[in-house]
Structures are given as C-alpha cells and as structure tokens.
C-alpha cells in the first residue's frame, strides 16, 4: 500500500470536510464522518488536525484561496473593468462548486455563534485576500484606502449574491444580479 504524504492527506481531509458539511451541515460534521469520507482512519485525522476548530479554519482558508487563485485579469482591461470582472469570476467559480458556497456560509455562521473572534479573523483573512487580488488586477491604480473600501464592497456583494442564489436557485436571476453588482463595483472604482 502506497504511503500518502502529510500535505496530500491534509487536502483529503479538507475536501472531505467540505463534502460532509455541504451534505450534512456543520452540526453533523463529526470527525468520524469526515475521516470516513476521506477514506482514512480517525487517528490520521487527529494527527493532521489537532482540533476540529483547526480543521474548520483550514477549510475556510482553502475556500478563500481556491477561487482567488483562478482569477484571470485581462492585460488591457481598465481597473474598474478588472474589479467588476473579478466579482463575476468569483460568482461563476462558486456556482460551479456549490458545495463550497454552502460550506463557506455554514462555517462562517458556526464561528460567529461559537467563536466570534475566529469569525472576525476569518473576515480579515477574506479582506486581505481580496485586497491582494485587487492589487494584482489593478496595479497601483488604487491606493490602500481605496482597495480596502472596494474589497469590503466586493465581499458584501459577493456574499449577498451567493446567499440569494442559495435561496432562489435561479441561474438567470443570479446572472442579472451579478451584472448589476459588477456595475456598482465599476462605478466605485471609477470614482477613485
């Protein structure tokens, strides 16, 4: 039997946790169920992640980083168009991975109820990742204060769009709402 490296095993547990939370909710995301979904012994899960909270935080980090890595900014686009397109790409990425959208909401609200400081930390990590993506897409077109403001709006619009979509499930409505949100983002960026 081939031995699995620690980083690969870590990713297996993160993917299994996403699947379990999306299917069963966070209240039923037991370490035993997660280990079974990863096709791994429970002891391995506890070796890689010392606490369930550590596992959940790693899952949340993964949910922030994965879509950010897939963002593509056209080389000749104006900064306002680049940021609007970022929002569009993020929504499309999560729609293609609905279990990740559900898990992200579940984890954030679980942390908000159980560990408000962790929820605040998660928001800060999201904000910083968004600021970095905007910096990459726009270069020096926006100063730090502007990037912070635009990042907050982007996060608020993104979360609202996904929450709305999980409730109504209508892809055409989501596309129309996303385009409206992209216009709002473009207008804000243009104002700087």
TrEMBL record:
Family matches, as InterPro entries: Homeodomain-like_sf, HTH-type_TetR-like_transc_reg, HTH_TetR
UniProt keyword annotations, A-Z: DNA-binding
A Pfam match: TetR_N
Annotated signal sequence range: none
Domain HTH tetR-type: 7-67
Entry-linked Gene3D superfamilies: Tetracycline Repressor, domain 2
Segments forming a coiled coil: none
Molecular function terms, GO-annotated: DNA-binding transcription factor activity; transcription cis-regulatory region binding
PANTHER family linked to this entry: HTH-TYPE TRANSCRIPTIONAL REGULATOR PKSA, HTH-TYPE TRANSCRIPTIONAL REGULATOR RUTR
Protein name: TetR/AcrR family transcriptional regulator
Species the sequence originates in: Pseudomonas soli
